[in-house]
Design brief:
single chain; Heat Shock Protein 90; 52% helix; 16% strand
Length: 429
């Protein structure tokens, strides 16, 4: 603390000022001479060890109240020692007023030996030192208490975060169990679907062998059976896709048709999008972009992005999702744009953190985007997000194009739908 042992002295005469200043200097005590109490008040903004006043300095009495006001503005621990030098037959009213207003006052009657003044001054400085020491200890204790409060708050926050993550892990385990169960159910359903398909085919064969005259009834039955067969084929296709998706992805990568991946991912969520009356617009470039990667892993990424977009538009007045591809010389961008509620900058900065989710506990694990980010990074690509509250979100996945050969193997494109138009396909679901 600056000048914490300095003595402010208001001497009665210039001669007293010179003598006192010389003696204090010889004793190693820093002393600042002041003409009146008002100058003392201005000097209080720096640390002081004590104040020496004479009875003459108390006039006018307004000066006492000004000094008392300044002393009242000191920190609670500060009680600046004041030595008041009175005269024989002093004005008791003024002196008593000073003692009551100023507080920590020691009265010394003049004339006095310089030894007495020095002793009182040293005592005042020592008292002030103890105050400063107590203030430092108080500040240290306050800092320690603040640190303890901060650590307690941080601990409570981490405990809350841990509880949320534990709940999310439980939910993730449930979803994993459901996934395994779904795979088993798909396997069990496959056999009866095969039998149903066989029965329908047999019935169609029987209808074709009916005698003449029953063509109308046979025709109606044939139409019904063919419709049933289409539904069986559709269910079988869903089960095959589900079993493929649930299978552990191979580490090996090869050429993959990106529109095929996107259509496959969309087929997973198409029924939910239809039930929620979400309109999906696809805008794929006609060049059929091919990337090098794992089809199952890429489908997992886009299923997650489409599911998030579906949840984002659930409460929106305009429920629309747009899927776009843009091919360049070395890479291709896939944009999934929704008209949901959007996110602020803080959410966007944390969106890929593991276990971070904007959904309620039990509604999401917070792992989907984190896993998607890791998969895209493994594919030497990138995934970015742009979002505005109240406007929507645009997720952009950038993947390097497959370049080793000019043509794509028929195996890589075998699961592409023969009748799909990828140039400008608009699907209302």
């Amino acid at each position: 603390m600056i000048d914490d042992e300095r003595i402010l002295f208001v001497p009665p005469t210039a001669e007293d000022a010179a003598i006192t200043s010389r003696i204090f200097t010889e004793a190693g005590i820093q002393c600042t001479l002041c003409e009146d109490i008002f100058i003392v008040c201005d000097a209080l903004q720096h640390g002081v060890g004590g104040i020496i006043l004479t009875e003459e300095a108390l006039v006018p009495q307004r000066a006492i109240h000004v000094l008392a006001e300044r002393l009242g503005g000191q920190p609670p621990w500060s009680h600046i020692p004041i030595i008041l030098l009175t005269r024989d037959g002093y004005d008791s009213a003024i002196v008593n007023s000073a003692v009551q207003c100023l507080g920590n006052v020691t009265l010394i009657e003049r004339p006095l030996a310089m030894r007495t003044l020095m002793s009182s001054t040293v005592s005042a400085i020592q008292s002030r030192r103890r105050q400063y020491q107590a203030a430092r200890e108080l500040q240290s204790r306050q800092r320690a208490e603040d640190e303890v409060r901060r650590l307690l708050a941080e601990t409570r926050e981490r405990e809350q975060s841990l509880r949320i993550k534990q709940a999310q892990l439980v939910q993730a385990a449930k979803l994993a169990s459901i996934g395994e169960l779904a795979t088993g159910v798909a396997h069990e359903l496959n056999n009866p679907l095969n039998n149903i398909s066989l029965f329908v085919h047999n019935a169609l064969d029987c209808l074709q062998g009916l005698p003449a005259g029953s063509e109308d009834e046979a025709g109606r039955a044939t139409v019904q059976l063919q419709a049933a067969l289409q539904q069986v084929d559709r269910a079988a296709k869903i089960i095959r896709h589900l079993r493929t998706f649930a299978r552990e992805a191979s580490v090996e990568r090869g050429p993959v048709s990106l529109p095929t991946v996107l259509n496959a991912a969309l087929s997973f969520v198409a029924e939910e999008l239809r039930l929620q009356m979400v309109r999906v617009t696809k805008s794929f470039e006609s060049s059929m972009p091919v990337v090098c990667g794992s089809q199952i892993q890429l489908e997992q990424v886009f299923v997650n992005l489409l599911t998030n977009a579906r949840d984002a538009v659930a409460q929106s007045n305009t429920r629309r999702i747009e899927i776009k591809t843009e091919v360049r010389s070395e890479d291709v961008d896939v944009q999934i744009i929704d008209t949901g509620s959007g996110m602020d900058k803080d959410m966007v900065s944390r969106i890929f953190d593991p276990f971070f989710t904007t959904k309620d506990v039990g509604q999401g694990t917070g792992l989907g985007l984190s896993i998607a980010y890791g998969i895209i990074k493994e594919h030497q690509g990138s995934i970015t997000v742009k979002s505005s509250p109240g406007v929507g979100t645009c997720m952009t996945v950038r993947l390097p194009l497959y370049h080793p050969t000019a043509t794509v193997s028929s195996q890589a494109l075998s699961c592409a739908d023969e009748d799909e138009d990828n140039s400008e396909d608009r699907l209302a679901v």
